[in-house]
Amino acid sequence: MTDIELYAIASVGAMLAGGINTLAGNGSAITLTILTELLGLPPNLANGTNRIGVFTQTSVAAGVFYKNGKLNPIHVKKYLWPIFVGAIAGGVLALNVSNEQFRSVFRFMMVFMLIAVLVKPKRWLRDTDSDYKPNMFIWMPALFVIGFYGGFIQMGMGIFFLIIMVLGMKVNIIESNAFKGLVIGSYTLIVLAMFHFQGLVDWKIGSILAVGQTVGGYLTARFASKSKWADQIAYYVLIIVLVLAVAKLFLT
Asked: Packing angle between helix 203-226 and helix 230-251, nearest 10 degrees?
């Protein structure tokens, strides 16, 4: 297979990953597989290189959501700092510790997330409860932990984030996805710089994948901002992603 054919396949996969990340999460499972299995990057280099597309895709998607009235940064800024601080700490750890050992526990975390998504599905299809006041002594540490995880490995972070926002903060799933783009885009720029200065970013390969991820993110965010069925579609995509992830982790 020629380099052009490899990059073409990688770009299509990256576009799919960008769409999945925007509407649900765990699209990095696709891009990390492309980077390691198809393009032959070592795990830590793939982890850093993947952040290029994550940054461009989430930033563009957040911009589309904002333009279409699905994202109000003022309402969510209080949730931003614990995630941001956690992501920086996770990025520091990722530069010094391989995340391969963590993947053995990842399968059980995926099972937990699938159960959380399937129990009482109506909770995932409700509007944002603007009167709800979450206990920040509980949720601030939770947001820090999810930020730490995102800075460390990124894969699956979007699903964890949706579970916290939709079930814990009672925010609508599409608005949660919009906020997710803002949050991940913000901390990924810093984490990407950290990987770059350690020589753990392949800018050529990462930029090629980033084009596909960004196109997928843009198109999906545009659809999700305007479709009346967006909530239901996002929920079912989330279930499909989790079922496929659990099947892959346990059967391979």
From this structure: 140
